[in-house]
Specification:
This protein is an alpha/beta fold. It has 13 helices and 11 strands.
Length: about 300
């Protein structure tokens, strides 16, 4: 046999996508190029790896076995590359982080310089909902997670990064037209919520329950960005993390409305499983944050700090 690592990568992607067209898109190759590599790879085996019925591609049981072996070979090849880098005095390896959606306004700034300093690091950041972030931790699929509320059922180490403050906000136009007091806003204006399970949603509901505030109308949106745009458009008011709205506040699109009991305060924490054996890359990242998090916060989040003071 004389297969290449490139052929292994192509075949693995074909198996993952169950489509030559989709595999070509994922690999940034042309469809004919992928088809040629599949043909050359297939010629080295006496049994079929795939078959096409109608217009649909199917992977044979033998093909599934070869794909699993290909994954292991590619993984070992990556390890060899990392070892070469380490022997050359370079930090190399994979770093995987899972973050809640609002965390996209936070985590990149604590990562960028570290990743740019170490070109041998392959970095993956999954931006998803709170439940999936917790699942990633439970199943040990990531090195770290960024959360504002710590899951109580997991034994975690936590590194605090940035204070998270939630304020009542409305559009500049809504505030200009409003004729009733701040105290009556949550009772009379539509209130916009994140989806169920969101940490922001949970914080809002806990606050409303503790203050015994009745809601006139509830509107639900499934992302912080959609929520922000809806408030700017005048659909209603919301209680939102300051970190995601500072630009809109600076432009004058949104206004913070003083309200008793607000802001709600929590902390953005980088967390990892207490018993996890951290890789050299993961350990170096923690060391980097411990040394640099204060200067990063001042450099990139001064606007948020000023608004909250």
């Amino acid at each position: 046999m004389n297969y290449t690592l490139h052929q292994l990568r192509v075949f693995k992607e074909i198996v993952n996508q169950k489509s030559i067209t989709k595999a070509a898109e994922a690999l940034f190759l042309t469809q004919p190029a992928v088809s040629i590599q599949l043909k050359k790879f297939q010629q080295q085996f006496p049994l079929p790896l795939t078959e096409v019925i109608g217009r649909k591609l199917y992977v044979s049981p033998f093909g599934e076995e070869i794909a699993a072996t290909a994954s292991r070979i590619l993984q070992e090849a990556e390890i060899m590359n990392y070892k070469v880098s380490l022997h050359q005095g370079k930090l190399a390896g994979k770093l995987k982080i899972s973050i809640v959606s609002t965390g996209k306004y936070v985590m990149p700034y604590y990562l960028s310089e570290f990743v740019n300093q170490h070109k041998g690091i392959d970095f993956t950041m999954d931006v998803t909902n709170k439940q999936k972030v917790v699942n990633h931790l439970e199943e040990n699929k990531v090195d770290f997670a960024l959360v504002s509320v710590l899951p109580n059922h997991l034994r975690l180490e936590a590194l605090p990064l940035l204070v998270n403050k939630l304020y009542l906000v409305g559009s500049a136009e809504s505030e200009q037209k409003r004729t009733y007091s701040n105290k009556k806003i949550l009772e009379r204006a539509p209130l916009l919520f994140r989806e169920s399970g969101s940490a922001t949603r949970n914080a809002m509901e806990s606050f409303l329950s503790s203050e015994k505030i009745p809601i006139s109308k509830k509107i639900e949106l499934t992302s912080n960005e959609a929520l922000k745009q809806a408030v700017i458009a005048g659909l209603g008011y919301s209680i939102m993390p300051l970190i995601g709205i500072t630009s809109a506040l600076n432009r004058g699109d949104l206004k913070i409305v003083p309200f008793s009991g607000l802001p709600i305060k929590s902390m953005w924490n980088l967390v990892w499983l207490k018993d996890k054996k951290l890789s050299p890359v993961a350990r170096s990242f923690i060391d980097y944050l411990v040394e640099n998090k204060t200067s990063i916060t001042k450099k990139y989040f001064s606007d948020a700090i000023e608004f909250s003071n």
